[in-house]
C-alpha cells in the first residue's frame, strides 16, 4: 500500500482518499486473519477486489428498497423456490435491482470460493492448509474443522475508520508522529520484521492506539 500511494505522489502533491485505502486494508487484514484469504494485494487502485466494492455498495443500495422491505421480507420470500424467485427478479428491468443482484452475486460467489477452497485444502491434509493464506490458523479454517460452515463478514467499517482516524490524528501532531516512527524504527533495527508480541509491547504505539480508541 505504501508503494501504491507513493506512486500516486510521484508527479507532485495530490489529494489521497485515505479512507478508501484504509477500507481496503481493513478488508485484507480481516480476510487474512479471519478467513485465510487475500482479497486485495493493495498495489494500485485498479487491483481492488470486486468484493470490497460490493460490501461498500450493499447498504446504500438496500436503502433504495426500504419502502418495499416489509413486502420482500414477509411475503415475497414465501413465493416459490429461491431459484424461481431469482428468475423472476432477473426479468425486472430496474437499474437499482440489477445492481443489488450483482452485489449479491459477488458476495455469494466469493463466500463459496473461500469456503470451497478451505474444504478442499482440509481434505488434502495439513500440508495443503499450511500453503494457504493464514496457514490454517485463520478462524474459518478452524471452524471448518468443526464442521461449522458459517461465514462472518464484519468489522471492515470499524477497522478502516479507526485506521483513518489514527492517520488523521498523527498528521495533526507531527511531533507525536516522529516519536512513534522513532520507536518503530528502533524495534525494526532490533528485530527486523517485528514479531507480534514485541509489536504489542511497544509502549508509545500502545498509548497511541489506546488514545485513538478513546476518541
From TrEMBL:
One of its GO terms (molecular function) is iron ion binding. It is found in: Membrane. GO terms for cellular component: membrane. It comes from the Eukaryota. Keywords: Heme, Iron, Membrane, Metal-binding, Monooxygenase, Oxidoreductase, Transmembrane, Transmembrane helix. Its main location: membrane. It holds the Pfam family p450. The keyword DNA-binding does not apply. Pathway: Secondary metabolite biosynthesis; terpenoid biosynthesis. InterPro entries: Cyt_P450, Cyt_P450_sf, Cytochrome_P450_monoxygenase. Its cofactor is heme. Belongs to the cytochrome P450 family. PANTHER family: CYTOCHROME P450 (PTHR24305), CYTOCHROME P450 12A4, MITOCHONDRIAL-RELATED (PTHR24305:SF166). This is Cytochrome P450. It comes from Sphagnurus paluster.
Amino acid at each position: 500500500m505504501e508503494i501504491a500511494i507513493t506512486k500516486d505522489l510521484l508527479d507532485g502533491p495530490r489529494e489521497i482518499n485515505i479512507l478508501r485505502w484504509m477500507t481496503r486494508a481493513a478488508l485484507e487484514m480481516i480476510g487474512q486473519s479471519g478467513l485465510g484469504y487475500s482479497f486485495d494485494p493493495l498495489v494500485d487502485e485498479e487491483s481492488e477486489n470486486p468484493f470490497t466494492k460490493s460490501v461498500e455498495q450493499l447498504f446504500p443500495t438496500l436503502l433504495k428498497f426500504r419502502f418495499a422491505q416489509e413486502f420482500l421480507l414477509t411475503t415475497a420470500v414465501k413465493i416459490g423456490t429461491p431459484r424461481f424467485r431469482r428468475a423472476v427478479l432477473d426479468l425486472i428491468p430496474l437499474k437499482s435491482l440489477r445492481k443489488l443482484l450483482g452485489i449479491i452475486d459477488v458476495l455469494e460467489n466469493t463466500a463459496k470460493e473461500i469456503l470451497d477452497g478451505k474444504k478442499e485444502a482440509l481434505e488434502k491434509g495439513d500440508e495443503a492448509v499450511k500453503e494457504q493464506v493464514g496457514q490454517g490458523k485463520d478462524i474459518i479454517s478452524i471452524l471448518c474443522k468443526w464442521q461449522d460452515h458459517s461465514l462472518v463478514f464484519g468489522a471492515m467499517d470499524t477497522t478502516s475508520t479507526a485506521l483513518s482516524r489514527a492517520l488523521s490524528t498523527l498528521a495533526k501532531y507531527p511531533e507525536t508522529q516522529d516519536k512513534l516512527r522513532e520507536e518503530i524504527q528502533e524495534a525494526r533495527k532490533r528485530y527486523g520484521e517485528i514479531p507480534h508480541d514485541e509489536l504489542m509491547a511497544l509502549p508509545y504505539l500502545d498509548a497511541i492506539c489506546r488514545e485513538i480508541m478513546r476518541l
